[in-house]
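User: structure tokens for this one?
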Amino acid sequence: MTSVPDGATGVDPLSVLSRFRVEFYESLYARADVLFELTDAVLCTDGPVKTLVELSLAHEMRRGHGALYAALDKGWCEPTRLRRTPADLPLPRTADGRITLAVDVSNWLRSDANTSPDRLFCHVHGRRADRTCDQMIPGRPYSFVAALESGRTSWCALLDAVRLGPADDATTVTAAQLREVVTRIIAAGHWSNGDPDMLIVMDAGYDSAYLSHALADLPVVLVGRLRSDRVMLRDAGPARSGPRGGRPRKHGGVLTFAKPESWHAPEITKVTDTTRYGKAEAMAWDRMHPRLTHRGPWLEHPTEELPLLHGTLIRLRVERLPGEATPKSVWLWCSATDAAPATVDLWWRTFLRRFDIEHTFRMIKQTLGWTAPHLRHPEAADLWTWLIIAAHTQLRLARPLAEDLRRPWERPWERPAKNEHLSPARVRRGFRNLRRKVARPAAAPKPSRPGPGRPPGSRNKHKTRPQPVGKTVKRAETIKEHEQRRG
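Assistant:
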């Protein structure tokens, strides 16, 4: 699929959507017609998707429910081509024109599927502040990578999804996944030499230090959140031995997040006025590094001595939060150093855009029905996940074309660019009207059983059975004798 440059003028959104639908159809190698119509049924059915079998009642699904389940069980898509297709599309960018990626894990819980293979315990957050009601529920976690937009929005571009197995190391799998996504973005022409480095934001569940080391050869800058019980170290300064000699020290003073008395003077302190959070104070310490140990992803490090990974430590504190929640300090670590105050402000603002992917998870679960089917085999779950990603991508491409079919009790959009600010649910509400204008490569179903009689216009292909000559002569003589008796 030919990629469209970002910000290109004169590009018809309808043609971009049609080309994506054709490319998506060609990526489905087995049961392609059923899987393509199943995706259209997800986009066009009224209301949220609650069960899989109800999609067979949609007008866009011309096959029965048996073909639907057989397609998810025996269907197959070409994963490399399907992963390359979203990266070839125009990618959203932040306000400064750079590409921002967010990586996060969303769980497909299957606590009652005792015979389903490749399940593992997924961490589910509770609603209490002390985290005493958190649970570990069996399910399948998926690692998603999405491109973020600027401003407050519920949109993002899903680029990749990988299922984490019981034997996988989450940090190693995430490093390989991010490398493949960044490589595909560069190959598609979205980034070239001289452009600003891509930003990758992540939550506290990731080892941002190891990811920065694994992706050091790529044009990326990582910004990750740290837990409030962590510590960071300063450099030891000039190389010198201890009081008794021996090996020079590698680490200097310790900065403990929970002990303000251990903080030294930050290199950057900036206060910014925001409309949502009030005054936001950002304090930055340059060239801070974590203490690495030989465990987790560092077990396979080729040398015994682990590297020093310098970065910028940021403490963000806001005046208020939406609702009545008490604001707490947020600690961030960035893989870049020697930052200016404007750059530090850009990093923490970009990290706050990471929460937009949570709206996408809620959309694909509650509206598109990602976790609604009870699929036993993990391969079928992977196929269904990519169908949902293709459906969400079509909604994103249909934003400039969709009409606001609002309910009488809903507020109308009063902004100048109405279509650009429609939510994904409102775009999906009018997708059935857009489907008539775009490409529909799926073929019509053929009857599995022929009807009674010969089809009109076809010739009889059955050959007459030849009879023996003796039996024919005897039959003719019998008829002649019968006529003579009657006469």
